[in-house]
Task: structure prediction
Amino acid sequence: MKAAGWSWLALVGFSSALAALTLAPSLWPWVTYPRATPLELLGEHLALVGLSTLAAVGAGLGLAIAVTRPAGRAFLPLARTLASVGQTFPPAAVLILMVPALGFGRGPAWAALALYGVLPVFANTVEALLAVPAAVREAARGLGFRPAQILWRVELPLSRPLILAGIRTSTVVNVGTAAIGATVGAGGLGAPILSGLVTQNNGYLAEGAILAGLLALTLDAGFGVLGAAGDLRGSR
Amino acid sequence: MITFEAVTHRYGALTALDAVSLTVPDHELCVLLGPSGSGKSTLLRLVNRLLEAHAGRILVDGHDVRSYRAEVLRRSIGYVIQNVGLFPHWKVAANVATVPRLLGWERSRIHARVAEVLDLVGLPARTYGGRYHHELSGGEAQRVGVARALAPDPPILLMDEPFSAVDPLGRQRIQGEFLEIQRRLKKTVVFVTHDVDEAVRLGDRIALLKDGRLVQHDRTEVLLERPATPFVAEFLGRDRALKRLSRVQASALARTTAPAGVAGDLPETTDLRLALAHFLESGTDAVALKDGQDSITGWLHRQDLEALARSRGQA
Result:
């Protein structure tokens, strides 16, 4: 309960700070980035992170489930190796590598974020599914669950905490990587940061950095609340 | 009735079961006994099609198990395993309700049945229904496992070393409780164990397996009296006579006349092995037998007990 309390406190604190700074920019009069309001920048950033993470979660879960089924089991070692090698690439490198492939703009940033975000979700889901005790799976089969029922009613619920942790990592890392996305023309909160660096304008820099930081902290605290709620366990 | 007809199963090049034929009659508990690697678990898992036979057939009440969809078949057969496999994210009540829910029973019926089976295994739903696996002792968890298997009231129960992971004292208790339940419910039970004492205590009949072949299948008394091969005799142990005595209650040999030299008394439900221990300790030749109300119902003579131990061939 204590952990859940702190998560709630952090969520309320960070999200109100984020809301205040975006909805009432007069609170920080030195903010002068001219090309978009803080709200627009935050919106772009959220869209970029949200859509790419959503795709990453879908692909990560799907792949992890596929390679832990009897039919896909042969690909498990290869997929695990690729995922752990993939995670050693710095996110910025993945982003830059997308440019020769897809050019400048939102597309490559989106693709890079989705691609990089798959890895933690995939890795955690695979580990969680493999950690389901053999006796539990055997009992489920012996009692007459269909394979899909074993997945939905036993394996995934038992894997929930680890999967959630993977999505959390993926989301938070993507908030930061998305900021670098400005270098390939993706917009979002990285735009004022980049602009601030180029023109040596600390106001621009602070605007982007503070909002991106608060966004990451807010999302992280949100997952903390979700995870703590899972610890209380449903009745079934 | 479960009938195995020349059943063969292989793991790769290894033949785990070699043309095993065996019939388990209705309402009896048949123990599959044997050393590890003898194929007893494999044989059990063929019944609910967790494994498929490579040759031969398995019939349940005359129907080939392959004529059912595997999941439908499994829901109609109770299944208990050594490591229980309770679903850790569900409370005890939800675990016990598993198969009735799969079968689509109504909520009120499930609720009533869960309470009934939890009572049967001595874990009242009021106290235990809301607990999780990690809040149970090993013995309690295994009782929940038995309750879960009994919940849909299946005619057949498959038990794969269900009590082996419970500590020795707890195991004896849970065996006794299970015997009581079985005397009342009269399920057709296939029970795998490598523990001879457990087999002798629980089995109406014992099928002894070795290296994937059926060595001997008989009523437990017959197996103890007339082991078919030296392997059977060795596997059952040199104290076969004592094991036979352990299956008979003192009341079975009770005489109605009091002999001279009676010392002490025993409950009439005491098994003859314990009665022998009493004779050895007390140095007497007869003992009074008492019923639950503490009144004497007869006398057990040491010479009758010894005569039974020496007798062969009268099951």
